[in-house]
């Protein structure tokens, strides 16, 4: 290349950079979000399913036209089956009648158009084993008279249509293909000439380059600025290729492998590749296939500056027509892992990605790069049902595992989760940009209609309907300059040509000098790499020991924090104990309250008893008084009657008797009154004596309760204030000290120490690279800082996570305390109200007692008035007066009678004297005359007896009066005896009362 050309080339490369930078600027603008297209393809029942007589449970249109798939999993029939069927909605549904052509037109066709326009596109087939994924994606890839058969799948159709379209557009273009396989988590280049699909040829296998995935997302996100700023500095020292690196470049590559690929390095590397290719372009020749990626990055991503992943050592083959593409496809398929299983005679045991890269002329010298990724995933399978054993079981396990991760990625994307587990499997890493990235994506879920696979069909449909919600942000691909593209291709061709020539001319293992040198330099670089790895291991182990020290310190810190937490726990326990104490006090108070209630009940019962006794007393009093009065009346009347009957009133001295009676009555009544009064007074006295005692006891108790309450309330308030103080202290501590114990400084200190150590050692050994190493150390420092910050935050998070339930419990305890507080207040108020109520009740009962006492008093007063009533009783007095009058009359009558009797006696005496005289006169005469005279007297006697009472003896004139007086005395005696007996009796009654 001439100097002029070189200049032009350099100018162009700087133009490329500008152009790429401009494009980068454009790419970062987020495009509109687009849901990925999801189609379901249901094949007809295969022979195996028909043989098993497994019924059709999936309901799909025969060809297409619906967006819904329903599956009857219940075993119902008719309308019930339709109603209970599970339904899934997707974008397109194809039935058994849908042809390969239709699937291409409807699903892959629109993406193909976008691919031509410059978008990166992905078509994925997903489903259970033997449902037709490979049939859909590849189908019959052979050409028949230059034509594809009806069974040709998406890849052959894309290849054919691509060249047809490009030819029609008459635009400059370059098309490359790559074909990779992911088998048991191992990536393999299916187009690598050293790969024969099996490991039997170990000799060839050792020349087969191992594919490695790098991704640049982390580096892009974090280091883009520093990467841009350091780009110009490092350009001059750039290596030619990853296989031809200086120690520094090798170190960089090592970092690429261990970490991710930062933009700076990627761009440096791009630039280096460009430069080296510019320099070596003079050696270029032509070849049919091109290894464009011997150590060069490859990407399934839309562009190198976005979240792409890079597959190191992947070969891309330049194709100029569809036939070449189909040949590559067939070559790759031969190497693909296929095995016969119970479910499928040609079951694909791996995931494959056939990538077509199109460099299409955009304007002038610029070519737009776009990629079409055609992904045929291995089928999920139920190992029990597929009967996979040994190798097949291992494959199925790996397939299921990667599909499971794919499912998790889909779920995380749909749920817009913060972390998408792309890195959990190589499959998801490869598909990273097609799911939620910058690619236009279509997913075809293939299913079987048979009942026997309904479980897996449901799972596939579940994923498909979920995946429908994944949103991508499609972006147009990057640009590349035409001459660089051409030079790249030419250089690769030349290299391969020289290899071919060497192979032709010699026997054994033949390769070009360059290739041999490259391999040697590879070997050297690997050796260096191993050495550096060893050194790095040492450095890392020293770092590790430092980190271990840090860890120890962190442990100590954690320990101290633990002890602090312990002390907090103790505080909390103390608070708990206080709470328990309060609870006990509460219990005591409630016990006391119960006692008080019981006491109140006893008091009420006593009051009731008193009331009852009062009533009984009243009744007894009434009965007694009424009985007394009655008996008094009866005695009076009976005595009067007796007197009447016995003519006691004949006695002259009845007045004193009546007076005596009156006196006795009055005395009796007075005694009664006195007794009643005494009784009442006694009762009232007792009551009044007992009442203050009772009230005093109640008041005392109430006072005690009040004191206890005040004490309890005070202690509660104190405890609560203690708790709140502790709370504030804890808060303050958490705010000021918790996890702020200079951890950051400590970590900074360690980082600085680490940094210093690294710096010291590095400066000792590599002084020439001091500047570079400083940068590196700076970067390390940042990384360490970042890692340590992450670690610290992780520790903090963990600690906080551990602390969280305790904090919640602790906060809850405050709620409980508040609750307890409010309960206390409520209880206090309730108690106060109850006490007031008790007081009121006592007041009311004392009022009512006072009332009843006053009523009793009134009654007693009334009974006091009974004497005066008796005195004022006119009827009684009238009767008494009448009695006295009657007595006076009787007395007069008796006196008259006595007088008349005396006169009669006198008469009788006269008669007697007369008779005596007569007898004396007749004594001297004859006995006959005497007898006459006796007869005469006897005749006279009846008339005498009619006038005077019969006289027993006539010894003296006072015999009748004597008889009467003796009678009177006997009556008096009887009366007085009766009276005495009555008195005695009444006294007895009073006594008993
Ligand atoms: N829609 C279809 N029309 C006709 N034949 C089909 C259809 N789908 C699948 N088949 C046939 O079913 C068989 C299994 O299909 P295929 O190998 O594509 O399944 P697969 O899903 O890729 O299975 P695996 O996951 O085990 O690789 C093949 O013989 C294929 O021709």
Describe, in plain words, how this protein is organized in 3D.
The chain is of the alpha+beta class and 993 residues long. The protein folds into four domains: 1-30 and 192-314 and 478-511, no CATH class; 32-170 and 317-351 and 374-476, Kinesin (3-Layer(aba) Sandwich), CATH 3.40.850; 516-872; 874-957. Helices cover 67% and strands 10% of the residues. The protein is built from 23 helices and 21 strands. The strands form six sheets. Strands 2, 6, 7, 10, 11, 14, 17, 18, 19 and 21 form a ten-stranded mixed β-sheet that branches. A hairpin with a 7-residue loop joins strand 15 and strand 16 (347-348). Helix 10 crosses helix 16 and helix 21 packs antiparallel against helix 22. The radius of gyration is 67 Å and the shape is elongated. Mean pLDDT is 71; it is low at 1-30, 197-205, 217-307, 944-968 and 986-993. Bound molecules: adenosine-5'-triphosphate (ATP). The site of adenosine-5'-triphosphate has 17 residues, from helix 5 and strand 16. Residues 261-274, 295-304, 952-965 have a biased composition (Polar residues). Belongs to the TRAFAC class myosin-kinesin ATPase superfamily. Kinesin family. KIN-5/BimC subfamily. This is Kinesin-like protein. GO terms for molecular function: ATP binding; microtubule binding; minus-end-directed microtubule motor activity; plus-end-directed microtubule motor activity. Residues 973-984 have a biased composition (Acidic residues).
């Amino acid at each position: 290349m001439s100097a002029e050309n070189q200049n032009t080339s350099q100018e162009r490369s700087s133009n490329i950079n500008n152009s790429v930078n401009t494009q980068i600027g454009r790419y970062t603008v987020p495009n509109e979000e687009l849901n990925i297209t999801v189609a379901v393809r249901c094949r007809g029942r295969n022979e195996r399913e028909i043989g098993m007589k497994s019924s059709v449970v999936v309901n799909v249109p025969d060809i297409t036209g619906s967006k819904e798939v329903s599956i009857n999993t219940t075993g119902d029939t008719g309308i019930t089956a339709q109603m209970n069927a599970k339904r899934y909605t997707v974008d397109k549904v194809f039935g058994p009648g849908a042809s390969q052509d239709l699937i291409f037109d409807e699903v892959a066709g629109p993406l193909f158009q976008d691919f031509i326009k410059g978008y990166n596109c992905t078509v994925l087939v997903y489903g259970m084993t033997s449902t037709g994924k490979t049939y859909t994606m590849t189908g019959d890839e052979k050409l028949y008279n230059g034509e594809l058969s009806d069974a040709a799948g998406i890849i052959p159709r894309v290849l054919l249509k691509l060249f047809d379209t490009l030819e029609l557009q008459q635009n400059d273009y370059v098309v490359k293909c790559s074909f990779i396989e992911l088998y048991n988590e191992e990536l393999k280049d299916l187009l690598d000439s050293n790969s024969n699909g099996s490991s039997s040829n170990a000799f060839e296998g050792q020349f087969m380059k191992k594919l490695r995935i790098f991704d640049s997302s982390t580096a892009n996100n974090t280091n883009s600025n520093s990467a841009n700023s350091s780009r110009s500095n490092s350009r001059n020292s750039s290596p030619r290729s990853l296989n031809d690196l200086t120690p520094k470049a090798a170190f960089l590559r090592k970092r690429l492998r261990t970490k991710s690929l930062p933009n700076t390095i990627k761009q440096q590397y791009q630039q280096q590749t460009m430069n080296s290719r510019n320099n070596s372009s003079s050696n270029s020749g032509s070849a049919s296939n091109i290894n464009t990626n011997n150590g060069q990055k490859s990407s399934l991503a839309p562009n190198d500056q976005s979240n792409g992943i890079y597959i190191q050592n992947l070969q891309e083959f330049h194709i100029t027509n569809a036939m070449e593409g189909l040949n590559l496809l067939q070559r790759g398929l031969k190497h693909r892992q296929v095995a016969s299983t119970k479910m499928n005679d040609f079951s694909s045991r791996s995931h494959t990605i056939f990538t077509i890269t199109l460099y299409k002329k955009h304007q002038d010298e610029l070519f737009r790069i776009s990629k079409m990724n055609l992904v045929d995933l291995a089928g999920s399978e139920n190992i029990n049902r597929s009967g996979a054993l040994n190798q097949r079981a291992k494959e199925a396990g790996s397939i299921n595992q990667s599909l499971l991760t794919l499912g998790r990625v889909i779920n995380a994307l749909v749920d817009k989760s913060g972390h998408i587990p792309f890195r959990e499997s190589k499959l998801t890493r490869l598909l990273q940009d097609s799911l939620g990235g910058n690619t236009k994506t279509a997913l075809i879920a293939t299913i079987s209609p048979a009942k026997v696979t309904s479980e897996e069909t449901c799972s596939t449909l579940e994923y498909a309907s979920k995946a429908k919600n994944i949103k991508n942000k499609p972006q147009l691909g990057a640009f590349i300059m035409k001459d660089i593209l051409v030079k790249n291709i030419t250089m690769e061709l030349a290299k391969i040509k020289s290899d071919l020539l060497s192979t032709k001319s010699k026997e054994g293992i033949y390769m070009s000098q360059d290739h041999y040198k490259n391999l040697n330099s590879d070997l050297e670089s690997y050796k260096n790499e191993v050495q550096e790895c060893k050194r790095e291991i040492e450095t890392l182990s020293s770092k590790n020991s430092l980190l271990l020290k840090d860890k120890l310190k962190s442990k100590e810190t954690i320990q101290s924090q633990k002890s602090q937490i312990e002390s907090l726990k103790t505080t909390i326990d103390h608070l708990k104990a206080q709470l328990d104490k309060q609870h006990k006090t509460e219990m005591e108070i409630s016990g006391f309250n119960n006692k008080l209630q019981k006491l109140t009940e006893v008091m009420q019962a006593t009051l009731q008893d008193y009331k009852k006794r009062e009533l009984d007393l009243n009744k007894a009093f009434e009965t007694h008084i009424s009985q007394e009065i009655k008996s008094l009346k009866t005695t009076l009347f009976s005595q009067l009657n007796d007197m009447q009957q016995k003519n006691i009133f004949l006695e002259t001295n009845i007045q004193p008797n009546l007076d005596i009676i009156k006196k006795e009555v009055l005395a009796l009544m007075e005694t009664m009154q006195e007794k009643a009064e005494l009784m009442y007074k006694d009762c009232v006295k007792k009551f009044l004596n007992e009442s203050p005692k009772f009230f005093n006891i109640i008041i005392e108790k109430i006072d005690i309760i009040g004191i206890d309450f005040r004490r309890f309330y005070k202690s509660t308030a104190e405890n609560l204030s203690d708790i709140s103080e502790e709370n504030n202290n804890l808060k303050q501590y958490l705010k000021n000290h918790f996890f702020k114990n200079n951890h950051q400084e400590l970590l900074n200190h360690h980082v600085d120490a680490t940094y210093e150590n690294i710096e010291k050692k590095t400066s000792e050994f590599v002084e020439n690279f001091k500047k570079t190493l400083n940068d590196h150390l700076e970067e390390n420092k940042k990384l360490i800082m970042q890692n340590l910050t992450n670690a610290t935050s992780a520790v903090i998070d963990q600690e906080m996570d551990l602390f969280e339930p305790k904090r919640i419990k602790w906060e809850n305890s405050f709620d409980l305390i508040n609750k307890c507080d409010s309960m206390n207040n409520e209880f206090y108020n309730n108690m106060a109200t109850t006490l007031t109520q008790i007081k009121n009740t006592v007041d009311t009962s004392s009022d009512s007692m006072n009332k009843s006492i006053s009523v009793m008093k009134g009654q007693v007063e009334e009974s006091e008035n009974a004497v005066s009533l008796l005195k004022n009783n006119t009827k009684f007095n009238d009767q008494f007066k009448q009695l006295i009058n009657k007595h006076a009359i009787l007395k007069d009558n008796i006196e008259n009678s006595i007088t008349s009797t005396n006169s009669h006696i006198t008469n009788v005496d006269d008669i007697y004297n007369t008779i005596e005289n007569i007898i004396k006169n007749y004594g001297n005469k004859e006995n006959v005359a005497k007898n006459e005279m006796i007869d005469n007297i006897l005749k006279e006697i009846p008339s005498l007896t009619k006038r005077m009472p019969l006289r027993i003896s006539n010894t003296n004139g006072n015999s009748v009066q004597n008889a009467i007086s003796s009678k009177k005395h006997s009556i008096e005696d009887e009366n007085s005896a009766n009276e005495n007996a009555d008195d005695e009796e009444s006294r007895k009654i009073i006594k008993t009362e």
